[in-house]
Structures are given as structure tokens and as C-alpha cells.
Amino acid sequence: MSLSIRAATNADRDAVWHIMEPVIRAGETYALPRDMDREEALAHWFSPDRTVFVAEAADGVAGTYYIRANRPGPGSHVANAGFMVAAGRGGQGIGQALCEHALSTAQASGFQAMQFNFVVAVNSRAVRLWQRMGFDIVGRVPNAFLHPIHGMSDALVMHRRL
Amino acid sequence: MSLSIRAATNADRDAVWHIMEPVIRAGETYALPRDMDREEALAHWFSPDRTVFVAEAADGVAGTYYIRANRPGPGSHVANAGFMVAAGRGGQGIGQALCEHALSTAQASGFQAMQFNFVVAVNSRAVRLWQRMGFDIVGRVPNAFLHPIHGMSDALVMHRRL
């Protein structure tokens, strides 16, 4: 599979929403309201402090990520990023390709580390992927996420130097 | 010292800025831009997802805190709060009084826990206070905060059930 990862444009908004909607509705991985509508979701993903990228496969946009400073001012040397892969495209290496791209982008932008603030602990595929990508679990908040199937789940803070 | 803690009104904005300005300029405890101006700072502290309180002493407003859901949707059962005490009023129990009020407010609002996302580890007075108030350190992000005196400092994630 050949993926081209590039900065998102306004023309990608439909494709990004098409990726976001099932993730948000499922409510299993992001602490976002499950009934969030298109405009709210896109305003969130494309909020002004973020830069958004999309991964384009032969048959269309297969994933998206954003990158931003995790905190302003004295915390602005640490990046944060969030990732979503299109429904039915899991397990194809798209998340890993997006993360590799995000790490390169963060490094090129001068960030010294990347932090994920809220990785749902029962999302073990994601946790394992981030660990393979060099992230350590540096925090565990008990019962921070109400999972629709597993009930209360811990949320992990994960971190990697760049 | 008698303190009255009450919801902030628009009439408190000057007093809140008077508390915020030295905290922001010092850059020792909050990951906020040190050059933030009055309007940016007040927009941040009074942002729409927050409820702001002030502690009124005999001689004026001596402290302020905000409370909010730390995350929306499946994370909205956990509260977050932030506290600032007026310059020159440290060590008088104002922070503790604000925190006790925030914990009561959070509990009355139905939150199940309170989380602090970014406690500067070298701010040992705050860390000790939160520990006395029942918070545990559940995460430690290495070098997440550039302290103007101590240089790179860890940031702590602290958590307490309600």
C-alpha cells in the first residue's frame, strides 16, 4: 500500500469527517461527545493551534492526524498529536505511518518531546503501537474514561523524547 | 482571616487579572505565555467551559479558582481545577480554602474525581498541599516545563476520587 501524507486542505474536510464520525460515534478511544456533529468535530480537529495532515491512499484519504504544542509558554517545547484511521483500515500500518510522520514533523519543528495526554488503557492496540514507536507510559489516571463496553477504563499519559 | 468564596462576576475581572498578572509574568507555575495580556488571560481563565470562583477577604479578592470537566464526553465525570492566590498572600491557607471549596463544588456537581494535569514538580509547596488534600501523583512527565530558575522541570499529573 502506498500512502502519501500531506498537510490537509479545506478540500479534505469531508474525508476527515468521514474518518472522524465512526470514531466519535463508537466512543471507545476519544474523550469526545458521541453526539458531536460535523461542524463541532471539524472545528475541534482543525482548531487554530493545530496543524492537520491526511494520509492519502490510492482509493482516498485513509487517515488523519493533528500536531500542536501540548501546552503554551513554558510547556511549548512538547508536542501533542492525535490520530484517526479510516473505518475498516485498521491493522494496515496506517497509524504507524501517521505516527512516524508526526514524529518527524515534530522534530523538524523543534519540539523536544511528544506527549499523549489521554490514551484509553483498554485500547491495547494503540498502547502497543505507541510503545513500539518509543513511547513510555509515564502516567495512569484511574477510571478516567467511561468505555461503552468495558465501563470505567484508566487513561494513560505516554511520552517520547525526540 | 475570614474568606468568603463565591462565584466570580464581571465586576471581579480587574481583581482576577491583578492576581493572574504576577503569576503569569513569573512563569514558574503555569504553562501560559509569560507575555499574555489582560484580555488573553481573562479569556483563558473565564473560558466558556469553566466556572470561576473568587475568595474575598476583608481587604479584597485574595484568590481565584476555576472548575470544569477535564474532558468532554466519556471523560466528563472527572473535574479539573486551577488555582491562583494573590501575590503576597501565600502561606495563609487561601490555596487550601480554595481547594476545599473546589472539591465540594465538584462533588455537588456530580463529578467522580478531580485531576490536575500539569503540576510543576519543583513547585513543592503546591505538590505538598495537593497531597495533604488527598491527591495522589499518578503521572510524571519528564522535562515538560521550562522553569525560569530551575530549568527543565517535570510536570505531575495528580488525582483524587470524590
Low-confidence stretches of chain A: none
Give the overall average pLDDT of chain A. 97
Secondary structure tally: strands of chain A = 7
Strand order in the sheet with the most strands of chain A? 1-2-3-4-5-7-6
Span between termini of chain A: 27 Å
In terms of DSSP E residues, the strand content of chain A is 35-45%
Radius of gyration of chain A: 15 Å
The helix/strand class of chain A is alpha+beta
Oligomer: homodimer
Order of helices and strands of chain A: EHHEEEHEHEE
Q: Could you walk me through the main structural features you see in this protein, from its secondary elements to its overall organization?
A:
Chain A is of the alpha+beta class. The first copy, chain A, has four helices and seven strands; from the N terminus they run βααβββαβαββ. In chain A, helix 3 links the parallel strand 4 and strand 5. The longest helix of chain A has 15 residues. The mean pLDDT of chain A is 97. Chains A and B meet through strand 5, strand 6 and strand 7 of A and strand 5, strand 6 and strand 7 of B.
Attribute tags:
homodimer, 162 residues, alpha+beta, 7-stranded mixed sheet, 4 helices, 7 strands
In short:
Chain A is an alpha+beta fold and 162 residues long. Chain A contains 4 helices and 7 strands, in the order E-H-H-E-E-E-H-E-H-E-E. The A-B interface holds A 27, 30-34, 36, 70-78, 112-113, 115, 117-118, 138-148, 155, 157, 159 and B 27, 30-34, 36, 70-78, 112-113, 115, 117-118, 138-148, 155, 157, 159.
Topology (SSEs and partners):
2 copies of one chain form a homodimer.
Chain A lengths: L3 E4 L5 H14 L11 H8 L5 E7 L2 E10 L8 E8 L8 H15 L4 E8 L3 H9 L3 E12 L3 E11 L1
Parallel strand pairs in A: 4-5
Antiparallel strand pairs in A: 1-2, 2-3, 3-4, 5-7, 6-7
